[in-house]
């Protein structure tokens, strides 16, 4: 097997290609400083929450510009084939990392489309090093890309993804989420945690 995907980055679905008049993403002035851990946005989030025993417990850190780095270690509970990470779990890690980018834009957005290239199998106990960045913004549409490496932050590529997130109002969650969790999140006295809980579909 070669060290890089011989096909190179997948061009992806046409909907993942920004239009010609798309804008460069702008980091929000109040975004966390480069190197700062973002922390969990919602305790019950499968991607980053501490209250999910089999969750990814992914830790994301602000990077330069509108970029994120994140790590997660594949657990036995994340297997698909014996001793190997389930592809859907790896896609979840990419989704979580890409979703974290929206916090740097201070935009509430949900995943509309997410395409994953699985380049290498990822064994249990492997640490996956993820990097993601927003590439363009066009109205409510946020275009982003991510890569996951194994063996170190500069190691071989195991997964990569392109995504389109769509900006939504907080009503998206309030109108669609199960009421018991919505009420609990809205009752959180910490305003930042309350806002961040509604970054994604709870
Ligand atoms: C820290 C945070 C970590 C978070 C990580 C996890 C993030 C998540 O997983 S979020 C949960 C998964 N996603 C969801 O549940 C979203 C479900 N989908 C929806 O609610 C809706 O389809 C939604 C909101 C995306 C779009 O609906 P709506 O607001 O009516 O917008 P709509 O008018 O259809 O589309 C807006 C634009 O986006 C485009 N678009 C919408 N969906 C897609 C799609 N799937 N593919 C391509 N383009 C799309 C439309 O074509 C339209 O483009 P244009 O403006 O050029 O005409």
UniProtKB/TrEMBL annotation:
Keyword Oxidoreductase carried by entry: no
Classification via CDD domains: PaaI_thioesterase
Reactions this protein catalyses: (5Z,8Z,11Z,14Z)-eicosatetraenoyl-CoA + H2O = (5Z,8Z,11Z,14Z)-eicosatetraenoate + CoA + H(+); octanoyl-CoA + H2O = octanoate + CoA + H(+); (9Z)-octadecenoyl-CoA + H2O = (9Z)-octadecenoate + CoA + H(+); dodecanoyl-CoA + H2O = dodecanoate + CoA + H(+)
Primary site of residence: membrane
Record keyword DNA repair present: no
Membrane topology: Peripheral membrane protein
Protein name: Acyl-coenzyme A thioesterase THEM4
UniProt source species: Streptomyces albipurpureus
Taxonomic lineage of the native organism: Bacteria, Bacillati, Actinomycetota, Actinomycetes, Kitasatosporales
